[in-house]
Amino acid sequence: MGIFCAGPAPGQNGEMERHYFDANATTPPLPRVVEVMARAMAESWGNPTSTHREGQRARHLLEEARREVAASLSVAPAQIIFCASATEALYLLFRGLQPALGDKPALVFPGEHSACLNPLREWSGVRWMPAAAEGAATVVQMAANNETGILYAMPAVPGAVRVKDAAQAWGKVPVDLADCDAAVFSGHKIGGPRGAAVLWLRPELPWKAVLEGPQERRRRGGTEDLAAILGLAEAVAALPGRLAGHAQLAPLRDALEAEVLSWSPAYAVIGRDQPRLPNTSSLLLRGKTGESVQIALDLAGFAVSTGSACHSGATKPSHAITALGFAEEEARSVLRVSMLPGTSAATVSALAAALKRILQPPLR
Ligand code: PLP
């Protein structure tokens, strides 16, 4: 019996239909991405560093993918470093900047993802926003928060190296690189695969390679995962349509929120009056725990989240929510709904109805 014999996929063989509302955790790979990757694994398995024909064919595909991704971001192909995840990209970025900048003042947004905050623990000069920006040599500001969906502008700090985590914004809203010097992107958030991500760096940055090896112009060692990179490039090619699909989610998100807010004055939507990702609702359900509501929704066929997926299993409330000034108990009551492009109004209505049954069970 193989590992694939554990049971039918959700929604098959009469199992309850599933509805996925956790797009900020990950997205299903696009069918074209799966096709391209399967073909690459079967046909283009050569090592791009090898000088023979198999290797050179792989190298050619790799560089074509780099050109496509770079063109989509309007940067030079040589400035793209392919990594395995945004977590890795952030690690390489901060570890690589550390010798030059790690002891100097760094202004950091406290709601950054843990993948960003973890390597910064080694930096001695971190000051948390809204501390004064004067004298900061580095500024770290995510484009969109994964838990609340709130969009953030890059603070203007003359002379500072500006770092943007664009992992959640990518594919959901346009991402501008003119206001930053380094940025990270993640393939699995845009209908691409796990195993492919992008670190973009301006060439003049005081950055040193951390992971030695000849690949990626000696900036990230390790044989490239060509299939994943080609899958990423395929997902990037679909970005214009994906952005348009996300724009259509805003009215559905607003309708869901208006419905939930009508049930109790204790309920709120975090960031409702701020610019936000069109697919994300951070519902503050005071008096409930996000975890219990999430479990009940899962049993009813709906996948949602209580916050960052990377934190699930931990009982600590989300730092991204408490950083906004909410109490720990409030942070524990947050339910995150994040839609995929193409989600229908009927599916959102079904989610609202299931949520209402859970929050306000009918009297017997
Ligand atoms: N940055 C943000 C804002 C994220 O939301 C995530 C993942 O949720 C990451 C970084 C890490 O991305 P990856 O899963 O590619 O390591």
Walk me through this protein's architecture.
About 35% of the residues lie in helices and about 15% in strands. It has about 375 residues and is an alpha/beta fold. It has two domains: about 15-30 and about 245-360, Aspartate Aminotransferase, domain 1; about 30-235, Aspartate Aminotransferase, domain 2, CATH 3.40.640. It has a seven-stranded mixed sheet with strand order 2-8-7-6-5-3-4, with helices on both faces. The protein has a three-stranded antiparallel sheet with strand order 9-10-12. The relative contact order is 0.15. Mean pLDDT is about 95; it is low at about 1-10. Bound molecules: pyridoxal-5'-phosphate (PLP). Pyridoxal-5'-phosphate binds near residues 87, 142, 165, 197 and 310.
What descriptors fit this protein?
364 residues, Aspartate Aminotransferase, domain 2, seven-stranded mixed β-sheet, three-stranded antiparallel β-sheet, 12 strands, 13% strand, disordered N terminus
CATH class of the largest domain: Alpha Beta
Compute the gyration radius: what is it?
Answer: 21 Å
Query: What's the architecture of the largest domain, going by CATH?
Result: 3-Layer(aba) Sandwich
User: CATH homologous superfamily of the largest domain - what is it?
Assistant: Type I PLP-dependent aspartate aminotransferase-like (Major domain)
Task: List bound small molecules.
Answer: pyridoxal-5'-phosphate
